Amino acid sequence: MEITLNVSDELAAQINPIQKSLAQIITLGLRELNVKKLQEFNGLSDVLEFLADLPNPEKILALKPSTQLQNEITQLLEKNKTEGLTAEEELDWQQYQYVEHLVRKAKINAQARINQR
Question: What DSSP state is assigned to residue 40?
Fold first, then answer.
C-alpha cells in the first residue's frame, strides 16, 4: 500500500536519510502506542503483570479473566453484533484478542511443563 503524508520541512529533513527504514519505524511506533494503550486497561494490565511474575504452571492454568475484564469483552461482543464498533473500540478488541493469544500460549507452555514432570 502506498501512503502519502504532508510533513513539515524539518521532519522531511529527518526522514530523508532513513526512508528505507520507514516501514519498520512505523511498525515499532504502532507497537509502542498499543503498549501504552494496554496500560490503560486495569484488567489487561493485571494479566500482563501476573505473567511477568513468571508464576508456576498451575497458577497459569488457573488464570481467568476478572469479572470487570469479562464484562468489557462481553459488551464489545454484543455491540459488535448489534451496531458495530467504533475505531477506538475496534482497537480495544484487537488488544483483548492479542492478550488472549498470549495467555493461551502461556497456558500451552504451562501444560507442557507439567507434562514433562
Answer: T
Cell of 83: 451496531
Per-residue model confidence as pLDDT tens digits over 65-113: 877 788 889 999 999 999 999 998 998 888 888 888 888 999 999 999 9
0.85 exceeded by pTM: no
SS3 63: coil
Give the start-to-end residue ranges of the domains of the chain: 1-38, 40-116
Q: Check if the beta carbon of residue 60 is closer than 8 Å to that of residue 113.
A: no
Q: In this structure, is the dihedral angle defined by the CA atoms of residues 6, 11, 17 and 21, taken in order, positive or negative?
A: negative
Backbone angles phi, psi at 98, to 5 degrees: -65, -45
Q: Rounded to the nearest 5 degrees, what angle is found at the Cα of 88, between the Cα atoms of 83 and 91?
A: 100
77's grid cell: 461482543
